[in-house]
Amino acid sequence: MSEYITTYTGKHFEPTNPDPELIRIEDIAHALSMICRGNGHVKTFWSVGQHCICCAREAVARGLSNRMVLACLLHDASECYMSDVPTPFKNELPEYQEQEEHLLGIIYEKFLGSDLTEEEQKELKEIDHAMLWYDLEHLLGEIQYGEIPELHIDLDYTVRPFEEVEEEYLSLFEKYSGTFCI
């Protein structure tokens, strides 16, 4: 049994012992465009890549820095190497959470130059939670209670070909990554 996964670009990547040199934005964009949100428990396909693009676009609409736009784009990037685990189960897996945080920190370090500050994490969570509210409403038809989160973008849950999502993900990355370590 191998200790690595073979990525889209052919790298042998060890999720439990991540080598930053093997992390490729092409692998992230490709895999996230093919992974379904909600562990597949949605009425129609909606990729993690589409979710990340919406988060990044919301950061732009809120006037946040290029760094925060990229952080929003990358916030689920660890899923391309580790997959995702539904939150109720993930809450019971502290080692998984540690590995995920470690890998995400390495990804942020590689593409942003450093891990996120507490304030940046707070801004990111606010956007991510707002998107989740709308995802649950639209992708599951699950009525959400409480205050409706304000969004500065219009969400369009149209199913798109993965190639289109992958291309948009890479385009956004290229547009906002110019000043960071890569």
Descriptive notes:
The termini are far apart. Helix 3 (66-74) packs antiparallel against helix 6 (94-112). It contains eight helices and two strands, in the order E-E-H-H-H-H-H-H-H-H. A two-stranded antiparallel sheet has the order 1-2. It is globular. The chain is an all-alpha fold and 182 residues long. The protein has helices spanning 25-34, 48-61, 66-74, 79-82, 87-90, 94-112, 118-140, 162-176; strands at residues 5-6, 12-13.
Quick gist of this model?
This protein has 182 residues and is mainly α.
Q: What is the alpha-carbon Rg in Å?
A: 16 Å
**Counted beta strands:** 2
Shape: globular
Instruction: Name the helix and strand elements from N-terminus to C-terminus, one letter apiece.
Output: EEHHHHHHHH
Strand portion: under 5%
Largest sheet: 2 strands, antiparallel
Ranges with pLDDT <50 over ≥5 residues? none
Number of helical runs? 8
Q: What structural class is derived from the secondary structure elements?
A: mainly alpha
The helix content, as a percent range, equals 40-55%
Average of pLDDT: 94
Order of the strands making up the biggest sheet: 1-2
Distance between the termini: 32 Å
Keyphrases for this structure?
about 180 residues, mainly alpha, about 0% strand
Chain-wise SSE layout:
Layout: E1 5-6, E2 12-13, H1 25-34, H2 48-61, H3 66-74, H4 79-82, H5 87-90, H6 94-112, H7 118-140, H8 162-176
Antiparallel strand pairs: 1-2
